[in-house]
Amino acid sequence: MCCNGFRIILMFSLAVLSFTLNSFMPNIPVILWYLVSINIFTFLLFGIDKYYSLKERSRVPEISLHFFSIAGGIFGALIAMLAFKHKIRKKLFLSTQGVITIIWIVAIYYVLTHLEAIQKGLQGLSA
Questions:
Q1: Got the DSSP string for 27-70?
Q2: What CA–CA distance (Å, rounded) separates 31 from 5?
Q3: How far lies 35's CA from each of 4, 51, 87, 95, 126, in Å?
């Protein structure tokens, strides 16, 4: 995970994968495919970082872990942190992940409570 460009390419690849999966199973929305794929990827990324920490190898930068959490992988990150007991003693990392979690919870709540208005707005755009 050397640079922002590489992270963006990975995220773009997950989006392309989501559209591809949607073409095979169109009844599942693209956004759901994206969220599933980025959460699995983030979970694996945390697992790789934990493995590297145990083997004393070069680690995944924390900015990459935060980037994929913000990009939609927050639930994969939280599950990985609990499953691998990884990064749970670092207060700054935990507080940053906590803020990201709160942002995602508020966003999900907003979308769920305003779903009808969002659907009407999207129908207006397509008309």
A1: TS-HHHHHHHHHHHHHHHHHHHHHHHHHTT-PPPPHHHHHHHII
A2: 22
A3: 20, 24, 22, 22, 24
pTM recorded for the entire structure: 0.85
Those residues whose C-beta lies under 8 Å from the C-beta of residue 45, and which sit 6 or more positions away, are 60, 64, 65, 68, 73, 80
- Biggest CA pair distance of the chain: 56
| Model confidence at 31: pLDDT above 80 | yes
Residue-wise DSSP of 15-27 = HHHHHHHHHH-TT
First to last CA, the chain: 42
- pLDDT tens digits, 70-127: 999 999 999 999 999 999 899 999 999 999 999 999 999 998 998 888 888 878 877 6
Q: Would you say 105 and 121 are in contact if contact means Cβ atoms under 8 Å apart?
A: no
Residue 2 has pLDDT above 80, yes or no: no
- The gap from C-alpha 114 to its chain's centroid, in whole angstroms, comes to 22
